[in-house]
Amino acid sequence: MRILLVEDEKRMAQALCEILRLENYEVDHYDNGIDGLAAIESHIYDIVILDVMLPGMNGYEVAKTVRRKGITTPILMLTAKAELDDKVMGLDSGADDYVTKPFMTRELLARIRALGRRTLGTTDGMLSFGDIMLDTTTLMLSCVTNGQSVRLSEKEYHILEYLIANGGQVLTREQLALKIWGFESEAEYNNVEVYMSFTRKKLAFVEAKTEIKAVRGIGYELRHDDV
User: What pTM value is reported for the model?
Assistant: First the structure.
């Protein structure tokens, strides 16, 4: 999953980015509401962690604008204020959940996992398509028909997660590059090709019938043809 962090406190942002990456999340960070809003509008993020007190545009304004534009990406709001009115204001602005600073890391991660399960449409942390199952916690790929499994690398996992989450739709190379490597990366499209090859080899290793098919001139789709 790709997470957008909009937080202007430098040390807080650095710590959160490190924590989230250790949990196998892809993370991008912006330190003001205007750039944060533009990033949200790109539609490449699965969850937004949004601070309230931001330069340029505060978190409440960002959340209201996002929802007014019909963007449904889950928002977890960070607030230094514990008063009920501030929490209500955050939820009424369009946030899905909130955490009050200072917070425990375990609580923040639990709330992110809950929003992630909602985004991916899973209640138990498992994603499935055709004859494969993907564990979002351990990054293990399994074939349900023969029980074989293998651990994916982070990039392989994010590619397969993205393909499964989109239900077999064709995803362009541009979409995959942005989703997996983000705006700040200098990754070329051949990176997509390389990691797509690695992911295909993992599917072959577990002897799954589910395959990643190339759609000429467009991109890739996950396909399971019953035999």
Answer: 0.77
